[in-house]
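Lecture 7 notes: from sequence to structure.

We start with a single chain of 269 residues. Read the sequence below before looking at the structure.
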Amino acid sequence: MTPEILNAIEQALSSGNRGVLCTVIEKNGSTPCNTGSKMWVDRNGGIIGTVGGGSTEHMVIREALDLISGSEAFHLIKGIFTSDQDSGDAPLCGGNTSIFLEVIGNRNEIMIFGAGHVGKAIALAADLCGFPVIVWDDREEYANSDNIPVGKKICCPLREFKEHIELHHGSYVIVCTRGHSLDGEVVEMIQDIKTAYVGMLASTRKREQLRQKLLALGVPMEFFDSIHTPVGLPINADSPREIAVSVLAEIIAVKNGADVEVLARGTGK
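Now the structure, written as tokens:
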């Protein structure tokens, strides 16, 4: 593996982004690359290294981008016919090769909007459970390492959030900001982003008030109704730490494919 690819992987891991490492694992006949050749594909389709060039490489990049935006971690492209001279999308002759694609980066992460008492407790619990943690708040006195000693802290106006992090299929989002108006802004901002989970800290009454406001602003009913709120499994949690336990239990249940509705049935949630 080249130093350039290693550096790109390190940057992706440190920034919370994802990419795909593509490796030639088998070759037969005349092919442009040897077994072990590697190529890194970033989330924008940029590449470092090569697995053969031409239409073969174009197809591998396309498959890599599908992996980055999806939920699978691996993919094997087996028996691609290759040649030293391509004509359009159809190789003329040569050998064949198999290429293994592996997603590298944070496939699952917990994104917490709000660094107050509850957000802090959720961040600490998430870190204890092994999740990469990102916490946003627009108040510098809350979004800092002294208040929250784990994960990545972001302090900026909400409108600038997307300049710092990109949510994806593996993002488990918790909305618990300093006020319901700001909660609504977060929900409005993420409505078109495909995430693994969205939970919001709110009472039933506050949830309904926010629902009516956001529907009037054009937020789809299906999206709002998909938000887990009141957030967490119903264990009559009261303190921030108890709420954090209930939230992490719900997230783990969703991640592992458990039926959250069955878990909550009969408890008044």
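The chain has two domains: 3-105, 109-264. Keep this in mind for problem set 3.
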